[in-house]
Structure formats: structure tokens, C-alpha cells
Amino acid sequence: MTNTIADIEEADVILITGSNTTENHPVISSGVKRAVTQKGTQLIVVDPRRIRITRYADKWLRQNLGTDVAWINGLMHVIIKEGLHDKQFIEERTEGYDELEKMVDKFTPDFVEQITGIPAQELIDAARLYAGAERGCILYCMGITQHTTGTDNVKSLANLAMLCGNMGIAGGGVNPLRGQNNVQGACDMGGLPDVYSGYQKIIDEAARHRMAEAWGVETLPDQPGMKVTHMMPAAHDGTFKALYIIGENPLVSDPDVNHAEKCLDNLEFMVVQDIFLTETAQRADVVLPSACYAEKDGTFTNSERRVQRVRKAVEPPGEAWDDWKILCEIATRMGYAMAYDSSQQIMEEISKVTPSYAGINYERIAHEGLHWPCPTTEHPGTPILHGAQFTRGKGLFHAIDFIEPAEKTDAEYPLYLTTGRLLYQYHTGTMSMRTGGLNQIAPEAFVEISAPDARKFELEEGTLVNIASRRGTIQARIKISRKAVDGTVFIPFHFASAAANRLTNAALDPISGIPEYKVCAVKVSKAA
């Protein structure tokens, strides 16, 4: 997030898109609802489903799946044509505006309506509302990123924020809501194939030299590794031989699970390190039991870049170890003596080799976390990014055209499928499905469908149906809902017994490598 969670309540207008906030981020959604009901903040929601947060919206735009670049460009078209953009901010703090203006010129409200299904006047009203605010906050989640154009979607939202001068100010910003605990911290620590900690590029010779010196080795690889979504097809082809999985369950969470199963079965060796025996761990050659969050010391970094202490509350069961201890032992047995006395010692090394974490240590975050970048121990942290300038100096507008989703409906597969989460289950259910009360509330997968579509396909509430895509078939029961939009069904992806990801498309964003979970074509028929 460029801003803080508390900062959301300082906004005059909040734009939420690609986020079922009340179910996926209930604590943050409470702040949004407080801002609307108690502080007069106006809310724009752009989402194809009638999710609960739309009840609080002043404007709800219901776009066709996979058309986000089009409606964002449409908003910018209106803002520019009506002179509502922040000309001073654009002149002083950005570059590339002329190319953006040329690109969005064709995205008239009528043209956007043809692509997105959003009525032209609703688009105009939303554009005026966002641009008219002194402080406009954008919140988004995986409904924006999990597309073959996910990177384009994110850049487009950044364009919109810069166009209206909503960067570097309280109550503004572009704020991704992270989907899992400490995913921000994992990325910060180099859990990506092309960077070291703090997003220092592997191809940067100076960064490689610093890391090699810190780790006591002569050289380090000068080329990035593989993205996880590239590992699977390489395993299928036989060019990728072994896989070490930590805290991930791809046999439920990966797209096109049938293909993922074949890929993992083709490996010569697979290790899974986890706290429970997941669907993936059951296929592993070796399973390493690890300690959970309450059984270890360390730090988590949350969505707002706040680095926070985690303290051991109970001892881990059986032979479970801290993740770092397991990794150190394996590294040592492989010939590199990796030895630390504690998680605090690891944090000290992180501070030494990571410029954005240089001023963060256990003492400073003993009672309250700090936001990175925090370059020195005297620095107070940075709650709001891009205050005086952007990391690259001037913010760069990207002129982005609309590209259709990778897969479209046809006569054989007439419905679109989109996937997501429920409030009462979490991710692949590794932890939440071991809780009886949650399983009573949300016991199984379902197919959410609109009443007109249910009538069209002669389906009733609770009907057991087959849902098929070009990749696989699952069975689940029909749930007729006002949330659903005609022509689109929704299935939660938590349930291995009816895994929505047996249906989803493994087509990837060419830059990020993220699969297009949010759009694929399916057909529905009554089960035998």
C-alpha cells in the first residue's frame, strides 16, 4: 500500500475495485464503512457482483469480466475532457502524460459502455465524483491482478491516481490489499525470482557483490530464477526435476489443477514444508513439519508495509521446527554452513543488507511496528510513499490499450466463471477447515448464479450440477443469488472436493506471470 490502513478513513472518496472487501478483508472494510457512515466519505465500487460493500456505495459500476483497462481509461477520458485533472501535479511530478491523453481519447463513455456494459452516464458520474475529491483513495485486490492483463490493470489505476494528484497525500494513494498473511514480507525478503531483499535486482552487479560479501561467497548467479507459474510446465516437460514447496498448496490453489497434478507427478523429487498434511503434501517424497505463527519468534510485514514483531506463545508440537531452522540445516548439509542463533540475529542481517529495512530492529519495533522504507535507526519510518517524489523521480504515465481476456464464451461454454473467497474459509482450507464452526457455516463449494440464468438453464436452488470448462469438470450445488450478474457464475476456490481451479485458465500475465483466475468460459448441466 502507498498509504496506511488508518489513512483510508481520511479519504473524501474511496474507489474499490477487484476486492470483495467485507469477506476478504473484514477489518479494513470496517474502516471503509466507518468512513462512509460516520465521516461523509463517498464510495465508488466497481465489481460485477453485488458484493456486500456495494450497500455502502454512492456509485456501483457493474463491469463485464476482464474489462478493467477499458473502464479506467474511460474515467480518465471524462476527467481530461472536462478539465478535472490536476494539471500542476502532472506538470511538476510526472512524465508521459501526452501519450496517455492520446490513448484514452478513444475511450468515450459510449465506447466504454460497448466493452464493459457500464452505462455511459454512470461512468461520467463516477469520474466526476473521483476527480472532484480533494483526497481520493483507491483500494484493489486480486480481482484486478489475476488476469492476463493484471499488470496493465494496476498501471492503469496508478495512471488514474496520478492524473488527479492523489499520490503522496493522506487519504489518497493506490492501495493493494494483500491476500495472505505476510505476503508483503515474503516479497520484501526476496521471495521473488529476480530480486534480493528490498527488491534489489539480481542483475545489478553492485547488489550481487554486496550480498555475496554478506554471505561469504565469491559469486552469486547473475540471472533471475523461474516464476512459479513457469515451474509447472517445465516439470511437465521434464526439464524441471525437483521442487521444494513451503506453506503453499498448489493442488488446490493453482489454475488448471488437473494439469498441475500431472506436472507434480512428473517431478523426480518433491519436498513440502507445512504445518498440516495438505493435498500437495500427501504427494510429496518428503514432508518437513514446520512451526506455525504462534509457535515462533520473528516479524511479519503487513499490507501497509508495517514491520511488526511476532512472539512465540506456545511450543511447536512433535518434531516441528521453525522454518528458518529447517532451511539452515538443509543448507548446511548441502555444503554451505548456514548458522544463526535466533530470529533476532536474522533480523540484524536483514537490516544490514536491505536499505529499506536498515533502520528496523527488534528494539525499535518491540511495542509498535515501523513502515518501510526506514533507512536509518533515527528515521521514523514512511507511512505514506511518494510524498516529495516518486522512487524513479517523476511518476511515469503508461499509455495502455484494452486487451480482451484470454478466453471467451461460445455456444458450447456459454457462461463466464469467476472465482474468489468466502468470509468463513481461508485460502485452501488448510487451517480453517479444521474448525467445526466454520465448516457448519460454509461446508462446501457452490455455484452462485443469477435467477434469470437459473431459469434459462432450468436449475433450482440446491440442484447438483456439473460445471465444466475446457480443462476439467467439478460438481457443486446451485445457489441462486442477487449477488450474481447474468452470464457469470461464481465459485469459491477453497474446497478441494470441488476445486474451482480444475476449471480456471492457466493463461499468464506476460509480465507478472499471474494466471487468469478471474475469467474463464464454462457450461453448467444437471448432474446425473
Characterise the protein shown here.
Helices cover 30% and strands 17% of the residues. It is of the alpha/beta class and 528 residues long. It has a 6-stranded mixed sheet. A 5-stranded parallel sheet has the order 3-2-1-5-6, sandwiched between helices. It starts with 12 loop residues before the first strand and ends with a strand. The model has no long low-confidence stretch (mean pLDDT 96).
Which secondary structure elements does this structure contain, and how are they paired or packed?
Elements: E1 13-17, H1 21-24, H2 26-38, E2 42-46, E3 59-61, H3 68-81, H4 87-93, E4 94-95, H5 97-104, H6 109-116, H7 120-131, E5 136-140, H8 142-145, H9 150-163, E6 174-176, H10 183-188, H11 205-215, H12 228-237, E7 242-246, H13 250-253, H14 257-265, E8 269-274, E9 286-289, E10 298-301, E11 306-310, H15 323-333, H16 343-353, E12 370-371, E13 395-396, E14 415-420, H17 436-441, E15 446-449, H18 451-456, E16 464-468, E17 473-480, E18 488-492, E19 505-508, E20 515-516, E21 520-526
Parallel strand pairs: 1-2, 1-5, 2-3, 4-13, 5-6, 7-8, 8-9, 14-18, 15-17
Antiparallel strand pairs: 10-11, 11-12, 14-21, 16-17, 16-21, 19-20
Helix pairs in contact: 3-6, 3-7, 3-9, 6-7, 12-14
